[in-house]
Known about the structure:
InterPro entries: CobW-likC_sf, CobW-like_C, CobW/HypB/UreG_nucleotide-bd, P-loop_NTPase, Zinc-reg_GTPase_activator. The chain contains seven helices and eight strands.
Amino acid sequence: MERRGSFDYIILETSGLADPGNLAPLFWVDDGLGSSIYLDGVVTLVDAKNIVLSLDEDPAESEEHEETYGGARHLTTAHLQISHADVIVINKCDSVTPYELANVEARIRSINGLATVHKTQYSQIPQLESFLLDLHAYDGIDNLDTAAQGHSHLDPTISTTTLPLPLLPPTALTALETWLRSLLWENTLPAPSFPFPSTPSTAPPPEIHRLKGLAYITTGSRVMIQGVREVFEIVPLDNGGGSTMKKQEDGTGKGKLVLIGRGIDAEALGRSLSGALGGAGASGG
Length: 285
Ligand SMILES: Nc1nc2c(ncn2[C@@H]2O[C@H](COP(=O)(O)OP(=O)(O)OP(=O)(O)O)[C@@H](O)[C@H]2O)c(=O)[nH]1
């Protein structure tokens, strides 16, 4: 960093067994690295031929992450590397049939509905910028509109879900922050108060790997929500873009929160969030 200014990009290639969820928060929040350095995004390269085997691998064969999770299927390194990715390159597409490729892509998107997916042969992409570099994954929310809904039956371990966020009064941001703290720091869903009765749950606790969201505030401003594992931030966006009320009404300005992780029960998450925000209408999808 003494040579600050002389780098265009810094690319870290991790080991094949790395958990990006342990690395990304370090680079995202460490101001000591200097203001010219920021975490641009996490790219995961997937081998189309072997990925299904890797996702289904017997955890006893996995050197890390040999944990069980509430009786659910085991988390493999492949799951972690896909769930934390902002861009996923599915390579060696020529070595599988179109049917196999469609299945691979569907499963990957069911795990991570936020990431941009590129399908390649010999890892060839049209250009680096905006495909693998200059992603601004942690300071932008461009891909929220295309975030896929979870189809958790495709992968039993990790899924993506989208919760709608209602138009929020400024005071609700504190409630949102408290809710996120409980979810990300304590892996606990605050029980919703009225009108939802709280029922004891035997479900495994939610474990969120990545989250991204946009909320519209009644004052006409917007906030971006970003998170990776237990680190998150709620950041005001400069431009509210005119009448927020109008945006809500014509359906183009709906706030949402996209969550990727384990033990995702969309309905329970939606009820809990809605309760935390004062019953303002979040329900899982
Ligand atoms: N058919 C086909 N072969 C490929 C493609 N991309 C790479 N290969 C070949 O696959 C072989 C192994 O390369 P990779 O799988 O990329 O190996 P690697 O990722 O560098 O290996 P590790 O870093 O040790 O995992 C090489 O012979 C490559 O030429 C592709 O899209 N299609």
